[in-house]
Design goal:
Elements (H helix, E strand, L loop, with lengths): L15 H12 L2 H10 L6 E10 L4 E7 L5 H15 L3 E10 L3 H4 L7
Antiparallel strand pairs: 1-2, 1-3
Length: about 110
């Protein structure tokens, strides 16, 4: 019988860049929104910021304000305003932007108009 006095070795790999990025996104959820805005190149055309809240009773409210920059403090204010409308548990919430593009220019006409 062979007796070993040392415990087996274990190697653990930790991707710290990914870990720290996850912590940052947890602390500031608007980072993901900012990345999406940059990806679709809508930074210059941002016209309004809005928050949509669906409550536990499936009622929904939307709060928006004019703004051109994603600001966590402003989104927090929008969330508080929306929550005060029903004061119920929140089932789902979303934060986004509205662009200032002309909707008529983006929509195709019917029958070749």
């Amino acid at each position: 019988m062979i007796v070993s006095s040392s415990p087996p070795r274990k190697i653990i790999y930790c991707d710290c860049d990914c870990f720290y990025a996850s912590v940052e996104m947890r602390d500031d959820p608007t980072l993901r929104l900012k990345a999406r805005i940059r990806r679709v190149k809508a930074l210059e055309s941002t016209h309004k910021l809005y928050v949509k809240i669906r409550f536990a009773n499936f009622r929904q409210t939307t709060v928006e304000c004019v703004g051109s920059a994603v600001d966590p403090a402003l989104y927090r204010t929008l969330l508080e305003t929306g929550y005060q409308r029903a004061r119920l548990p929140v089932r789902l919430l979303g934060a986004s932007i509205r662009t200032g593009e002309d909707a008529a220019a983006l929509q195709l006409g019917l029958f070749g108009e």
